[in-house]
Fold Cellulase family glycosylhydrolase.
Amino acid sequence: MHPADLSASGSFAPPPAAPRFGVNYTPSERWFHHWLDFDLDSVRADLDSVAALGLDHIRVFALWPYFQPDRALIRPRAVEQLGALVDTAAERGLDVNVDGLQGHLSSFDFLPAWTRTWHRRNLFTDPDLVHGQAAYLRTLAAALADRPNFLGMTLGNEINQFSTGPHPDPDRATEGQIDAWLERMLAACEAGAPGRIHLHAEYDATWYQDDQPFTPAQAARHGAVTAVHSWVFNGTAQRHGPTGVPTEHHAAYLIELSKAWADDPHRPVWLQEVGAPAPLIPPGHAAAFTEATVAHALDCPGLWGVTWWCSHDVSRDLADFPELEYGLGLLTNDRRPKDTARALARAARAPRPAPAPRTTALAVPSDLRARSRCAPGGPVYDAFFRLVAVGARPTAVLATRAHDPAHLAARGITEVVHPDQVLTPHGRRGGART
């Protein structure tokens, strides 16, 4: 999808003819702390190694405290360096999505001092703080707006983790307050760079956690595309092992689950983060997991693209990361491709026909307090994967839309089944046909 396909209102166009393939860029030297000692030659070498895989885009993380250390100070030099990185990517044929509000990365929180401790204010509701965030996002977007390879802004990385438990110091907000915050932040991005692909992205608690104020409806209705982040350390790999059907299809499940909440039946979905976390996915199986995960995601109609986590390993010179974070890169710190990189490169090169519609839909509850039914071990989750295990290609539909002929027809759904029709001793009993 070219940015010109988007209207100034931020509405979205159909997904590209072929899904995009990219990677979340983690610098090989100094990780995201490279912004403190920015070395464009090192970035060039990193992006050469990414481009050699045949990928077409990267997702870049501008660490918020380094870019906006004071509410009234957005560092011009940092913004200039971000522009240089985007230009360097363009020289290598790579488009760039930029995350603004970091936010949370690899188990660490990165929030400016003017939001915490003695200056503690709510990230989502304090008027001054919200104004500062909007100014920051607008500034980054405007600085990149004239670059053809700038895809657009993501508000921040999994910022929903700040909104409730298990975060130890959450910035609590209501669903309505989060709605207003999302609208304000996306409008700021649109004001800075009209017509680009501006979106927000949360971790899977949005879909699975009953008390999350970031909701599935927000994920599927705000912004240009729906983003999902698939990590099988959420109980999936623990329950089903590295080769289990739910493990290999978890990304596809989230893609299809998200469609239940979309108002537009053809809204694109971006698999914006997915990776092979050791030891749940043993290093020797990581390439096979990558191949299976990507293949099943590509079998989902309306997929915008796949963006793997991540480009380069975290250096062992850095301390205090969880062990799994050090080895998630497609490439080593000296920029050598691993088997996972080769698997993703093969998928990016392979021609693929557009997937057929998924005609069987599993009904999912619209009650936000029932989201845990869709989580690992829940009846929706279990029913979905039982269908997959017998060869079906299910999607999802809200139970409140299960008898809406126009909605079902627009999505190509001809049969709706309910979890209790699947999870019986005798297997699937059949569903309501449209």
User: Anything to note?
Assistant: The mean pLDDT is 94. The first helix runs from residue 40 to 51.
